[in-house]
Amino acid sequence: MKLHDLKPAEGSNSKSKRLGRGAGSGKGKTAGKGMMGQKSRSGSNPYRTFEGGQNRLVKRMPFKRGFTNIFRVDYEVLNVGDLAEWPADVEVTPESLLEARVVRRKTMPVKILGDGEISAALTVKAHKFSTSARQKIEAAGGTVVELPWVVERHSRSRGPNYGGRNAKKKAQA
User: Fold this and answer.
1) CA angle at residue 70 from 160 to 106, to 5 degrees?
2) What 3-state class would DSSP assign to 13?
3) CA 110 – CA 102 distance, rounded (Å)
4) How far apart are CA 171 and CA 163, in angstroms?
5) DSSP letter at 21?
6) Helices (DSSP H) in 62-162: which residue ranges?
7) In degrees to the nearest 10, what's the CA dihedral of 134, 119, 78, 75?
8) pLDDT recorded at residue 89
9) What is the DSSP string of 18-34?
10) SS3 of 46, please?
């Protein structure tokens, strides 16, 4: 078989109906557009959100505009100044902060920001640090340990996919 032998399947190609070419054509006079009205005129129809002159939904609800980033990560925020009274012998971890009621939610990652001063040499473990917070903690003789934060990504079609994560844990054990 050669290129010149290729032909479309029988009945797959049909000529387009010529509109407005007499009553015998099957699409004469109004050419399938019905009788009168805005949609029968030449040119395009009204815009997608048009509601016949009534104030349209997108204008009635301006707060619905824009988009929401579904991958956004919210943090429990804590300043370096909040750790000033922390005892030097106790390690600062998300769990110890939760026990001391400095942070409220254990489901959110902890971020340390650089507002305030610190003098004690602390070992601070958190999920994120601002540059100024890192500098202030290390300048006071402390150490900064960044913890990993695994975000549970949900399958958009089948709900949460916990199976893969658990399979990895079993393989490591």
Assistant:
1) 65
2) coil
3) 11
4) 12
5) S
6) 94-99, 131-139
7) 20
8) 85
9) PTTS-GGGSS-TTTTS-
10) coil
- Identify any residues that bridge with 129 across adjacent strands, giving them in sequence order: 112
Helix (H) or strand (E) holding 58: helix 57-60
As beta bridge partners, residue 76 has 110
CA angle (60 as vertex; 57, 62 as ends), nearest 5: 100
- Mind listing the pLDDT tens digit for each residue in 72-100? 889 999 999 999 888 888 899 999 999 99
> Any residues with CB less than 8 A from the CB of 154 and at least 6 apart, and which?
160, 161
- Distance, in Å, from the CA atom of 115 to the CA atom of 130, rounded to the nearest integer, reads 10
Half-sphere exposure of 68 (CA within 13 A, CB side): 4
pLDDT digits (tens, 9 = 90+) for 110-169: 999 999 999 989 999 999 999 999 999 999 999 999 999 877 666 666 666 565 655 555
How far CA 37 is from CA of 23, 33, 46, 65, in Å, comes to 21, 9, 12, 32
Reduced to 3 states (helix: H, G, I; strand: E, B; else coil), residue 76 is strand
CB 92 within 8 A of CB 86: yes
Between CA 30 and CA 36 the distance in angstroms is 9
Task: Report which secondary-structure segment, H or E, holds 166.
Answer: helix 163-172
Contacts of 20 (CB under 8 A, 6+ apart): 27, 28, 29, 31
Which pTM was predicted? 0.55
